[in-house]
DNA sequence: CTGTTAGCGCGTTCAT
DNA sequence: ATGAACGCGCTAACAG
């Protein structure tokens, strides 16, 4: 209960709280001696405001510590400047790299991101989408091309740009940025056959994209006369444990494989750990084909083979495709389909 | 260009678009045959609405595919249901685990999170905060206790709950959830001295909290008569490269250490990788003290020592502290200070 | 280049 | 238990 409560009509009235969340556009306008809309324009489209008033507004903004209310702004303009990003997890460097790169690029363009972690579940994706759609994001980035019917319907009726990442398909919702998992499977098969391997095994998670790769791998192997590929599959998400367990299972059987194809970097690291524990040499005793980001494992196992993916690059590609769509005034529904490709390497180097 | 464009005045008019982003509370109200405010209540406080109307509203919501506009809701209620979370990176399992756990728990309580990745920079933190404050988050979670003056000022004037995580200090902004890094440094020193080590080295990033630990470590060592602790420091964020380089530098000098204290799990893994490359045995040739989440490295090196931290647990603790504050109608500014503690372990097991 | 008017979609009063 | 009026803070559309 301050005593000095009487109205202070001095023009400066520097007694006021200067609360960030307290001051509005109108406060700024009063201090600057212009109308509210002019302040709005000075902030959002400086080029259409004279330098004089621009300066006055700048000063006023600083003086009252004004922070624009994006809820109000978004409501009025129907532009939330928000992008929703859905990934299965951020515990894999592939996805965390992608998320960081994506957020970074979008951030520079004035967009913020809101993350949805789906845990490889389309149900979780659906429920998260329901919640996040309430924020009226300007765009949505999804992982994979498998989604629930409701998800697809909501996405369609939302009318905003949608990116499906990390896979390719024939009936994308909108923008597609990924690579062919079947091509990966086939390439891995050919590559390893060429190196002379004949006894194959797969340790995999049951993730949809991993399944695609495995199928293509086995198909190609079969086509080349190699049958009887042993597969050990675990429910996603995988940890090192699954990799260790996978190798253990394979090793306890009679016909031991010469090479193990792993569905993820984490699985591969588990396999490598178990191999180390058993004193197995890579690749003499057992060759390992990793997938994703094997850079750290490669420090320990120079002879590691891998399908190398660059999460940060994918994030950057998504960002640029999205921004182009977002910034194009014309509502061009130009179909976008980017094949990010993949690298097949024998000697992974950091 | 559908032919049936003529106005369909039938009460059902099931021809309409049913656009998620198109339908509003009013549309739902019309279909349900109640007033807009009743729909609002049915959605937000079902307990004050009769079961009959509740059911009518439910049906109407489903029929038009209504998704509440949280921008409008937030503007009117001054509750964004948003929590801003700032971390240096999500490429470390410590932080990604924390973020996932935190988002999860907050999500169950109806809060969504918006992530800010600061890259260990208070400047970046400041600029991100400026942008995110515009969304009027209901709470903010920060990493560490070092912030720019402007950040502090904005935080204070925003008047919302603020959590500082991963550290303790004497003048917290608001809620504090962390542990004493000096205590860690001292404990590590005592522990290793007790095990008989005398020649110490440190490989570290220049992160503020790491510096605290190093200082405390060296102080304690000095106090116990161990001087001349060699330190190799790199700018954050660290990768495996820094760890490898660290060991290389230390090994090229004459007085080689018996034990290396690492400032992060990533650094430690780099050191271990370089040790492996040089054929050094852990801990016979060189003992390693890790920090953070060494669970995967421990698969390869059972004799690894480590300060173990549980990111998911920290995330959960933050969430519950925050939710308590957020849900308490009374504006209790009860100071909260949680010491999460840490574990010092010799044999890290997955 | 600047101002005026009129909402954006919802929740908070109050009333009934 | 339900409804009517008003305003949250901002920007779109027109003016001038």
Q: What series of H and E elements makes up the topology of chain A?
A: HHHHEHEHEHEEHEHEHEHEHEHEE
| Number of DSSP helical runs of chain A | 13
Q: Specify which chain pair forms the largest interface.
A: A-B, 60 and 61 residues
The helix/strand class of chain A is: alpha/beta
Cα-based radius of gyration of chain A, to the nearest Å: 27 Å
CATH class of the largest domain in chain A: Alpha Beta
Which blocks of ≥5 consecutive residues of chain A have pLDDT under 50? 1-20
Largest β sheet strand count, sense and barrel closure of chain A: 6 strands, parallel
User: How many distinct folded domains of chain A?
Assistant: 3
Percent of residues of chain A in beta strands?
Answer: 15-25%
The CATH architecture of the largest domain in chain A comes to: 3-Layer(aba) Sandwich
What is the averaged pLDDT score of chain A?
90
Number of E-state strands of chain A: 12
State the share of residues found in helices of chain A, binned by percent: 40-55%
N-end to C-end Cα span of chain A:
64 Å
According to CATH, what is the topology of the largest domain in chain A? Rossmann fold
The oligomeric status of these chains comes to homodimer
Strand line-up of the largest beta sheet of chain A: 2-1-3-4-5-11
CATH superfamily membership of the largest domain in chain A, which one? Response regulator
Any idea what the shape of chain A is?
elongated
